[in-house]
Write a structure and sequence with these properties.
homodimer; 2 strands; DNA-binding
Chain lengths: 116, 116
DNA sequence: ATTTGACTTGGAGTGCACTCGAAGGGCGAA
DNA sequence: TTCGCCCTTCGAGTGCACTCCAAGTCAAAT
């Protein structure tokens, strides 16, 4: 699949796809006969996972670390799981924080007097 | 209260406090006899609210818009409430998204085989 | 044969939200 | 009175995550 199709399906721009590859987030995307990127379904799944990490606030640097471990093979699975667990805690905290903020927002909205 | 105390209590740096004032997010902080900023309790409450908007992902530009409306007086209360309602929807969506992402993370973590 | 259009690379540019530096003023303690 | 420290303003610098540009290649369409 071409970079445009991959962009379409992943929701990332072609620019971003090339950028991710350049910094090592995506490894070894195949090339066709004239050197154009040729994305496989597996690349799409990886991209989808990366996107999930991004939307949950993981930094590009941490994602690179994760990608590097993944490239190193399955003996790093434990370490990767630990990273994910750590990240999960951050996501849980963020949800808790947002939920709290939502309450304050509700209060502000429902109060009719002068709003701060 | 001095800028350092305000920084301490708001959790923002003195640099950021000056920056927020410069771009109009904070209006008219009092000055003492030698021109130093002198924060009032009300400023602290406003800062706390601003921080809540930031942590929930509101852009500085949108916060400036809100601050501007606030300065214009209480006839803008309706408009401000509308902005807040809109923002509340964004926060709700973000919570929903994160909750979904959390499920995927849980799945990835609990699955023992090779992790993508 | 030429044009069109999508692709390649490397490097430069952008926008956001800070963050810091330089130059200078005021004031209390040694 | 000199030191040290915290403050002021203005403008420049930083880090992150893209985002875009220039120059060139290649293949299909006209």
């Amino acid at each position: 699949m071409t970079i445009q199709e991959a962009a379409q399906r992943s929701g990332l721009s072609a620019h971003t796809l090339r950028y991710y590859e350049r910094i090592g987030l995506i490894h070894s995307v195949g090339r066709d006969h004239n050197g154009h990127r040729d994305y496989a379904e597996e690349d799409l799944r990886w991209l989808e996972f990366l996107t999930r990490l991004r939307t949950t606030g993981m930094s590009i640097a941490d994602m690179c670390r994760y990608a590097e471990l993944r490239r190193m093979g399955k003996h790093t699975a434990g370490e990767r799981r630990e990273l994910l667990k750590l990240h999960r805690e951050r996501v849980r905290s963020k949800i808790a924080e947002l939920t709290e903020d939502l309450k304050v927002l509700d209060y502000k909205i429902n109060r009719n007097g002068d709003m701060a």
